[in-house]
Design a protein that fits this description.
The chain has helices spanning 2-26, 30-42, 257-270, 283-290, 294-301; strands spanning 105-108, 124-126, 129-133, 136-140, 143-146, 152-154, 159-167, 171-178, 183-192, 199-200, 205-209, 219-226, 229-231, 237-238, 243-244, 248-251, 274-276, 314-316. By secondary structure, the chain is of the alpha+beta class. It has two domains: 74-263, Glucose Permease (Domain IIA) (Distorted Sandwich), CATH 2.70.70; 271-316, Membrane-bound Lytic Murein Transglycosylase D, Chain A, CATH 3.10.350. It is elongated and about 75 Å long.
Length: 318
């Protein structure tokens, strides 16, 4: 009798234990699952350079802000002296080469009751120019300002919202074309508070700061553009105080000298460290082929600038 009771007890315990195992397998710990999802969502990376040709998503987002059946009359688009198109999808639809800009353009930034307001007040965490990204150097085309999630972001000048959508790199972003001829881009919002075709004044809140898109933490990425090409925001704004440096901006080749630096860096990255001379190669031919001076080529290889090269000779280029 005692043996039977013991057997029954063991069977009941085994049954309960099996049910517990099955329950744990079928119903995973939701707390851990949610935590893992949140970690994945926050596992983002700072963008390389921000591509001027990024196309924003076509999905509807914050469209409830936009008035029903709103149709923006493009004849009222700002700065028609400088722009002849109005694109609400592509960040840079203009395809204008300003590296060899022949003329000088002077833009009056404020006046006629049109003022300026800093996009945000915060420490600069990443400036305009080259920065390290892993082993490589990448060019950063804007200024990053430290912000907390939910902090307001303001329109810098008067104008009309051209783009207010979401993109892969910028996250939730806004691009404004201003009456003065500039365009400004604001990225990584947690929430948009504006829509394409909306008129805004300097100081109007256009969204709340966040860390969407390729971002390592809450901040505002701020760009200034002319005809699609980026200009160093530090040319216009003194960010420690958020004040405008001048009421006008002279735009000429010097505003885009960074394009030469980027082009040179890209060409340099394509140059192999060593090559083997081909039949008929001379230092002069190799120098022209890779954009290197004969003097530098001779110095790197410790040979005369007039030295003759045999086929297969190993040469250092950088």
């Amino acid at each position: 009798m005692q043996k039977n009771l013991l057997s029954i007890t063991l069977l009941i315990l085994l049954s309960c234990f099996s049910q517990k195992i099955i329950a744990q397998t079928v119903e995973p710990d939701t707390t851990l699952a949610q935590s893992f999802e949140e970690d994945e969502e926050n596992d983002e990376f700072e963008g390389e350079e921000f591509d001027s040709n990024i196309v924003v998503e076509s999905g509807r987002y914050w469209d409830f802000i936009r008035p029903t059946n709103l149709k923006f009359d493009t004849s009222f688009a700002p700065a028609q002296t400088h722009y002849n198109s109005w694109d609400t999808i592509t960040v840079n639809p203009y395809k204008v080469d300003l590296i060899k800009m022949p003329d000088t353009v002077i833009l009056k930034l404020i006046g006629n009751e049109c003022g300026f307001h800093p996009p945000a007040i915060g420490d600069i965490t990443s400036n305009f120019g080259f920065r390290r990204w892993g082993r490589r150097a990448k060019f950063h085309f804007g200024v990053d300002l430290r912000m907390d999630v939910g902090d307001p972001v303001y329109a810098s000048f008067e104008g009309v919202i051209r783009i207010a959508k979401k993109s892969a790199d910028y996250g939730y972003m806004v691009l404004i074309r201003h009456n003065n001829g500039l365009e400004t881009l604001y990225a990584h919002f947690s929430q948009l508070l504006t829509y394409s075709g909306q008129y805004v004044k300097a100081g109007d809140i256009i969204g709340l700061a966040g860390s969407t898109g390729r971002s390592t933490g809450p901040h505002l990425h701020f760009e200034i553009r002319f005809k699609g090409e980026k200009i160093d925001p530090n040319r216009l704004v003194y960010f420690p105080s958020g004040s405008l440096l001048s009421d006008s901006l002279q735009i000429d080749q010097s505003c885009f000298k960074h394009l030469y630096v980027i082009k040179s860096a890209k060409l340099k990255a394509k140059i192999p460290k060593y090559i083997k001379a081909r039949r008929g190669d001379t230092l002069s031919k190799i120098a022209r082929r890779y954009g290197i001076s004969i003097k530098k080529l001779a110095r790197l290889n410790r040979i005369s600038s007039k030295a003759k090269l045999s086929k297969g000779k190993r040469l250092r280029l950088r």
